[in-house]
Amino acid sequence: MATAGRDGTPGRRRTDKNSKSDKNGRADRNATPRGKATGDGSRAGKAASGQRGGKPVGKGAGGAGAQQPAHAKKRHRKGSSQPDVKAGRIRLNNARPARHQSPTPDVEEQGATYVADGVRLQKVLAQAGVASRRGAEELIAAGRVEVDGEIVTEQGLRINPDTAIIRVDGARVIMDETRQYLALNKPKGWQSTMSDDQGRPCVGDIVAERVMSGQRLFHVGRLDADTEGLLLLTNDGELANRLMHPSYEVPKTYLAWVRGEVPRSLVRTLRDGVELDDGPVAVDGFTILGVHQGESQVRIVLHEGRNRIVRRLMEEVGFPVQALVRTHIGTVALGEQRPGSLRVLGRDEVGALYKAVGL
């Protein structure tokens, strides 16, 4: 199987899938089963995968036997968690299969090739709409991704997306460069899913004709069924992944009608932060728009994306939400869109989203 370190450097390759012997049939007595901890706390296989000063052998730049610097390199992803193999085995494959599953006659699949200035495999899969980048890493870890005829299970392999033949679950993935960016005004009572096994109305029903015509779309984040308002739909996996990640702090604006007359002192409380069951949350902005007959209208701005975060926050401070609408994601505004309607984002709006997440 093709291996690569977390910094994208290719690892040691085996010529025989069922043996650890070299070409002359001599067994490697020092081989340690992958996954077992060594005495110093490291995992066996790091040297074999070219992570800690090993001598990786691969078909990428530098040729066979090219040495990797001994110093540790920055991990390609924030955090230290490993992809969940179990989740990867059951994860839904969103890839739209290519019309022709066999490679073109002049292409010969000879195994995954490391390309020094290429694109990481998980990023290519995310851009193709197969899954989010983290979801793509789980698919790779579960052994469901094949590059040029070879199953790849290690993270960080760099490839040329223009020439590599990629398959997920045996079906070749179409590398569609046509990007779609849509704004939807999700109606109240509709599910933020592309399909619903209980037959409830969902976002997928609104874009059904587009999907049937061959467009691959997925929603960016969610709104609970009782919340209406702005929801983005796209097939740009990288942009969607960054918009949903709290580290990029893309603000989301909501209009809420809450029970009770909200005092001015609540503004400071919400800005300082409120402790919820799954951790603290602080708003980026909070404005009281009006108070009438025991009900208040407020505007809330925050970059958190946790489940029902606005409702839980206001419930915690004693002002339950009666109605909730999301009006903005970054600089993209809902405007005068009717519930259930779609519109294509303008070039300036897409550019602003890219700028907000550093793309």
UniProtKB/TrEMBL annotation:
Residues 1-109 are annotated as: Disordered. GO terms for biological process: enzyme-directed rRNA pseudouridine synthesis. The keyword DNA repair does not apply. Its EC number is 5.4.99.-. It holds the Pfam family S4. It is an enzyme of class 5 (isomerase). It catalyses: a uridine in RNA = a pseudouridine in RNA. Residues 51-65 have a biased composition (Gly residues). One of its GO terms (molecular function) is RNA binding. SMART domains: S4. Residues 119-183 form the RNA-binding S4 domain. PROSITE patterns: PSI_RSU, S4. Residues 16-31 have a biased composition (Basic and acidic residues). Keywords: Isomerase, RNA-binding. It comes from the Bacteria. Belongs to the pseudouridine synthase RsuA family. This is Pseudouridine synthase. The lineage of its organism: Bacteria, Bacillati, Actinomycetota, Actinomycetes, Mycobacteriales.
